[in-house]
Specification:
This protein is α+β, with helices and mostly antiparallel strands. It folds into three domains: about 120 residues, Butyryl-Coa Dehydrogenase, subunit A, domain 1 (Orthogonal Bundle); about 120 residues, Butyryl-CoA Dehydrogenase, subunit A, domain 2; about 130 residues, Up-down Bundle (Butyryl-CoA Dehydrogenase, subunit A, domain 3). Helices cover about 40% and strands about 15% of the residues. It contains eleven helices and ten strands. The strands form three sheets. Strands 1-4-5-8 form a four-stranded mixed sheet. The chain has a four-stranded antiparallel sheet with strand order 2-3-7-6, with no helix packed on it. Strands 9-10 form a two-stranded antiparallel ribbon. It starts with a helix and ends in a 5-residue tail after the last helix.
């Protein structure tokens, strides 16, 4: 069913008015800049209430089926809602692994029982999800995951360790990649995929403190943890295929997310505004020719990424290298974001060395914190090096 331009405009006005009236005031404590920095019950309670409020108003899961808590309308309405969230600078939606990865996957290939059990809780924020892919010894070599899941009657007994488990200490469920057949001829064929409960005996998520002083990740230890056999998604040995589909959602190459902001907006215009009163040798830094040259390059890069996203939705403009823009977007955007934040710190001069908590820090140390936090996005979902290989092999057709 096609959506008219008038319907889009009316919906945008409706969302904008709601966001304006319902955007929460500052809570008086530091909020996470992304879903990867939720490190306290105080932050979690605030963000959970906000996500529930957005979902109750009908602005999350707009394209998901109504019978599972969604809106049952065309995806374009979720795109509009998300754009208004960014424009109004509302808080993030904290349950991104559920909203953006696990939920779309279940919605796409899950059984009716799985959809009925999991989807509504993801949207409401009641059920937090985490991801069990990376391991301490096999972080970027996902196909070599060694955590074991051994069938024992109606359960699988799981032993091993996962790391960089975002919100693992708060999660109710985990999308878990585990090895069920260590004797498989191809290592990929020995992997299976589970929708695993987290609040059971034998699963111990331990928070990891980051360079910023914040938390958000855990190292998760499985010691004879028994998870029900019906938590297996698909069949044994299909784990690699399902994990690759999950990563398509994580990397933004596959549609279906329920919406919400994963990151606080940090764009080049915000940085230029912040640097407006910075001086060097008595002169405004933005008048410096070298600085302006670097700024123009960053502006062009950000604009190119934005236009590339729009182009990727137009089939006629992507026939030369199908999926090239979606598959490369994660690499381009995360590396650009890191470099842009670094530029913002360098341009502050000596003030760039100050951090959150220092009364003299510009904008409360926002850009310094944003820079340190940007590294997690260059690693999660596949490191920049892995992403470069994906572009080379799957888009350009270069040899391994």
């Amino acid at each position: 069913m096609s959506v008219t331009e008038q319907e889009k405009e009316d919906f945008r006005a409706q969302v904008s008015a709601w966001m304006k009236d319902n955007k929460p005031a500052s809570p008086g404590f530091l909020l996470p800049q992304s879903f990867m920095e939720v490190g306290s019950e105080q932050q979690l309670d605030f963000l959970r209430e906000w996500q529930y409020k957005m979902w109750s108003a009908g602005y999350l899961g707009l394209a998901w089926p109504k019978e599972y808590g969604g809106g049952g309308v065309e995806p374009v309405f979720q795109t509009i809602a998300d754009s208004e969230m960014r424009r109004h600078l509302v808080p993030i939606a904290f349950n991104i692994i559920g909203l953006g990865w696990a939920g779309p996957l279940i919605n796409d290939i899950g059984t009716e029982q799985e959809k009925a059990k999991y989807l509504k809780g993801i949207l409401s924020g009641e059920d937090i999800w985490c991801q069990g892919f990376s391991e301490p010894d096999n972080g970027s070599d996902l196909g070599n995951a060694q955590i074991r899941a051994v069938r024992d009657g109606d359960d699988y007994v799981v032993n091993g360790t996962k790391i960089w488990t975002t919100m693992g200490n708060y999660a109710k469920y985990m999308i878990l990649l585990a090895r069920t057949n260590p004797e498989a001829e191809r290592k990929y064929d020995g992997l299976s995929y589970f929708l695993s409960p987290m609040k059971i005996h034998g699963i111990d998520p331990r928070p990891i403190q980051k360079l910023t002083g914040e938390y958000g990740f855990t190292e998760t230890f499985f010691t004879d943890a028994r998870i029900p056999a019906d938590c297996l998604m698909g069949e044994e040995g299909q784990g690699w295929k399902i994990a690759m589909k999950t990563l398509q959602y994580e990397r933004g190459a596959e549609a279906g997310a329920a919406g919400g902001l994963a990151f606080v907006r940090v764009v080049i215009d915000d940085m230029i505004d912040e640097l407006g009163d910075v001086t060097r040798d008595g002169e405004p830094i933005l008048q410096d020719a070298a600085i302006r040259d670097q700024l123009v390059r960053l502006i062009m890069e950000e604009k190119a990424i934005s236009l590339g996203d729009r182009r990727s939705a137009i089939t006629a403009l992507t026939t030369d290298y199908p999926f090239s823009l979606p598959l490369s977007n994660k690499l381009r955007w995360t590396e650009y974001s890191r470099r842009m934040r670094q530029f913002a710190i360098n341009a502050q001069g000596a003030a760039g060395s100050l951090y959150v908590g220092d009364d003299e820090a510009r904008q409360g140390g926002f850009w310094q914190r944003a820079y340190f936090n940007s590294f997690s996005a260059t690693i999660g979902g596949g490191t920049s090096q892995v992403q470069a290989n994906i572009v080379a092999e799957h888009i350009l057709g270069l040899p391994k």
